[in-house]
Amino acid sequence: MKNLIALKKSFPLWGKSRVCAGMRDILGHKPLSGLRPSPPKGERVLALSFLLALFLFTPSLSFAILKVVTTTPDLADITRQIGGDHVKVTSLAKGTEDIHAVPQRPSFVPLLNQADAVVAIGMEAEHAFLPALSDVAQNPHILPGQPGYIDVSEFVHPMDVASNLSRAEGELHPQGNPHYNSDPRNGLLMADAIAAGLSRLDPTNAETYRTRESHFKEELSGKMKEWQNLIQKTKGIKMISHHRDMAYLADYMGLIIVGEVEPKPGIAPSPKHLKDLVERMKSENVRIIVREVQYAEKTAQWLSDQTGAKIATIATMGGAFPDSQTYIGFVEHNLKAIADAAQ
Ligand SMILES: [Zn+2]
Q1: Of 138, 230, 274, 336, which alpha carbon lies 20 to 30 A from 248's?
Q2: CB 12 within 8 A of CB 31
Q3: What is the pLDDT of residues 278-301, one digit of tens each?
Q4: How far is the CA of 264 from the centre of ligand 1 (A)?
Q5: Among candidates 151, 82, 144, 164, which has minimal Cα distance to 119?
Q6: Ligand 1 centroid – CA 245 distance (Å)
Q7: Is the per-residue pLDDT at 82 higher than 90?
């Protein structure tokens, strides 16, 4: 009401600087009276209503766009696809990085501090950087368990869940295998998780999120029909990878995992482990070495030289290659790389 009285007082300035005069008055400056005649009554009521609406709705307008921080570029793409104009999305990790070893960059702190939501892979995949930076960011709304923390893994059926949950010996998958994002069947569930999270935070636009999610899932489902041709080429073929990140994608492609370069996720191989791996690859006729782009090519090349298996270079996150900037592009790049190596 105070504002309203102040606005009324400012109307003698009509014709010169209408809004500015009002603002000056509200800020405590005295209006200059008598410079201009009053405007017609209808016009005055209209202008007054406009300014009042501006005052009443400006705070909510500033929150109309959700500031969302995702941990990976593929999560960022799905969030943009579902959120449209209602979200402003930033990804913390780069597509070529190792999700378990993303540096704790100081630039992440203000992003987390100002975020309305964090979208994470979960299952402790982001253990290296997210918990520590979230603590520093002093934004309780985005901490685990809060509405602003969207843990996508809650919608996915986890694989490789160990009975003994521990980080002993540097184990990086204490809650099961978190590399579910490369399997497009999980892409559909990831969309469900993100749409649910955005709707929880912004129920006014829930219908829009549902509609946009349906479009995304239709497009992905259409692609999955196309990808059946690629999967036909990989069924029953034996493979190894550097890190234990192929469980979901191998299941989708019908590949048989024979082993990994790392004896346990995050543990560097000993010479004996590599020698044993070569023997196993030879005896089991392993044809594909999956080399994740974040690991140096040297080991994969050495294994290929020893065994004749072909190298397929893939990414474990979106954004690593020019053709994998979207979630669908990310999945397709990996499928094609592995299907090519299976020829
Ligand atoms: Zn991992």
Answers
A1: 274
A2: yes
A3: 999 999 999 999 999 999 999 999
A4: 10
A5: 151
A6: 6
A7: yes
**Burial tier of 256 (Cβ tally within 10 Å: 0-12, 13-18, 19+):** middle
pTM of the shown model: 0.81
Q: How far is the centre of ligand 1, averaged over its atoms, from the C-alpha of 337 (Å)?
A: 20
CA of 123 to the centre of ligand 1 (A): 10
Q: How far is the CA of 163 from the centre of ligand 1 (A)?
A: 17
> Does the structure show a pLDDT above 80 at 11?
no
Which domains, and CATH codes, for the chain? 2-61 (no CATH), 66-224 (3.40.50.1980), 228-341 (3.40.50.1980)
CA of 25 to the centre of ligand 1 (A): 60
Mean pLDDT of all residues in 59-88 = 88
Burial 176-195 (b: 16+ CB within 10 A, else e): bbbbbbbbbebbbbbbbbbb
Q: How far is CA 1 from the centre of its chain?
A: 44
CA 292 – ligand 1 centroid, Å: 11
What is the C-alpha to C-alpha distance for residues 318 and 292, in angstroms, rounded to an integer? Answer: 12
Strand partners, 69: 90, 118
Task: List the one residue out of 161, 155, 175 whose CA is nearest residue 100.
Answer: 175
Neighbours of 91 (CB within 10 A): 23
List the beta bridge partners of residue 5: none
Q: Given a cut of 90, is residue 310 above it in pLDDT?
A: yes
Q: In the structure, what pLDDT confidence band is assigned to residue 183 with cuts at 50, 70 and 90?
A: very high
CA of 167 to the centre of ligand 1 (A): 12
Contact 59, 37 (CB under 8 A): no
Instruction: Give Cβ neighbours of residue 14 (< 8 Å, ≥ 6 apart).
Output: 36, 37, 38, 39, 44
